[in-house]
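Late entry, evening session. Most of the bench is empty. Finally got around to the prediction I had been postponing all week. Sequence below, unchanged from the version circulated by S.P.
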Amino acid sequence: MADYRLSSAHCHSNLCDGKNTLQDMALAAWKQGMQTLGFTGHSHTPCDLEYCMSPGRTSQYKADITRLKAQYAGKLEILCGLEWDQFSDTDPAGYDYFIGSVHYICGPKTGRYYEIDWREQDLQECMDNEFDGDGFAMAEHYFAQVEKVAEKHPDILGHFDLIKKINGEGKFFDEASPRYQQAALHALEKAFAGCKLLEINTGAVSRGFRKDFYPADFLLAKWHELGGDVIITSDSHSTDTLTAYFDEAAEAARKAGFTRVMVLTGHGFEPCEL
């Protein structure tokens, strides 16, 4: 029987921006008694080679996971997934599954790429240089990109409102503002046409960036109203966060009206009653 506590579908290794090797992650998952581990290395993205897998590392990633699948056969289901970025030149076909995500804004004025989820300076420069200091316009542009990613029909739509990650204390925009929430809700409704599985991502909480998950509660409630499914993910970048805050995420799902979550298994995505 599928159990959300025993499956981690969004995980990174040191072949991209994670801290541990694929082998270390697999060993930790097995020691924790997990049933399924899905790796989702960051797809090659030419605009930023700092965080993603190079073509060479992508080949190594696939080969290493193939070996791990054989090594852990009968003990741990291991899947070779991909976190695909909207500016990636990698074809997600051929992977066991893929997460569609947005990590950048391409400036409409300068054509410069800005990473939105790491350095406050980058987000500040994006807002000032591309949107005349209007944080709401920047967020609206971001959500329009999420809509485009959903058109790619990913298996999972990743960290839907990542734009808020370093927006602590509303530094760039007010997340309670009707303008912000309307942009997010509009994108969510549009995205539903292309993807029916949204992740409840605990990564920002486990790494100390936020006290709330992706997506925000109002978005989670709307997703339930639309009839979508959710999957709890850790966006793990280290062995100690493979299933971090999963029970808290399950409670957030219940509060939004969900009675089940989907779980990655060796046979695809299966429901788990809450």
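Two things to note before I forget:
The chain has a mean pLDDT of 97.
Helices lie at 22-31, 55-71, 120-131, 135-150, 178-191, 203-206, 217-226, 246-255.
Will write this up properly tomorrow.
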